[in-house]
């Protein structure tokens, strides 16, 4: 169904109750090389289990120093869901002399976390001022793709408007992603 589009195996909630490791191994055997987790500890575990070359995205934005250290330790891609979280991540990356890959999360209606579409100045500040962050992606998450195609389209339109503002300011938003399984199907 994805027809060559990169797939992220989302392994949150202990692999949706099936176990992070067994699900990651199954997905890897099926050719999936990108994993997403909610907890920084799961990124560290995946690395400890031998997932050394695969991209791991930590979906939950955090400003907690211990959690950021785990993300950096795992060489994972962090989520920047607020300027404060991005600032904290940048500071720890700078103190370690590294540049951390980050995906910016835009909250277009899910209501969990993420930059609001109206916070374009804060989003652009990540690109302009946080030099120890390398934005490799920008994403949103549909609130309920099966129940409301109209609402999902509104969310996509809001997301695309933010992406266009990023590009108009001369920055590259990286990999764009929004479709959960519901939306893909």
Could you describe the 3D structure shown?
The strands form two sheets. A four-stranded parallel sheet has the order 4-5-6-7, with helices on one face. Strands 1-2-3 form a three-stranded parallel sheet. 44% of the residues lie in helices and 16% in strands. The longest helix is centred in the last third of the chain and has 20 residues, at 149-168. The mean pLDDT is 92. It starts with 7 loop residues before the first strand and ends with a helix. α3 (40-48) runs parallel beside α4 (65-74) and α4 crosses α5 (83-95). The protein is of the alpha/beta class and 185 residues long. The chain contains eight helices and seven strands, in the order βααβαβαβαβαβαβα.
Key descriptive features of the protein:
single chain, 185 residues, alpha/beta, four-stranded parallel sheet, three-stranded parallel sheet, 16% strand
Topology diagram in text:
Layout: E1 8-10, H1 12-16, H2 20-29, E2 34-37, H3 40-48, E3 55-58, H4 65-74, E4 78-80, H5 83-95, E5 100-105, H6 120-129, E6 133-139, H7 149-168, E7 175-177, H8 181-184
Parallel strand pairs: 1-2, 2-3, 4-5, 5-6, 6-7
Helix pairs in contact: 3-4, 4-5
Task: Describe the structure concisely for a colleague.
With 185 residues, the protein is α/β, with parallel strands linked by helices.
């Amino acid at each position: 169904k994805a027809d060559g589009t990169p797939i992220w195996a989302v392994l949150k909630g202990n692999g949706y109750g099936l176990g992070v490791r067994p699900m990651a191994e199954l997905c890897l055997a099926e050719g999936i090389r990108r994993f997403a987790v909610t907890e920084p500890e799961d990124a560290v575990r995946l690395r400890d289990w031998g997932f050394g070359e695969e991209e791991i995205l930590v979906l939950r934005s955090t400003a907690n120093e211990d959690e950021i250290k785990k993300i950096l330790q795992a060489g994972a891609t962090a989520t920047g869901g607020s300027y404060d979280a991005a600032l904290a991540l940048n500071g720890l990356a700078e103190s370690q002399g590294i540049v951390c890959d980050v995906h910016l999360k835009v909250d277009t209606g899910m209501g969990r976390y993420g930059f609001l579409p109206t916070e374009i100045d804060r989003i652009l500040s990540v690109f302009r001022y946080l030099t120890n962050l390398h934005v490799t992606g920008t994403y949103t998450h549909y609130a309920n793709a099966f129940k409301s195609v109209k609402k999902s389209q509104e969310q996509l339109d809001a997301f695309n408007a933010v992406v266009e503002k990023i590009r108009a300011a001369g920055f590259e938003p990286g990999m764009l992603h929004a479709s959960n399984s519901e939306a893909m199907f």
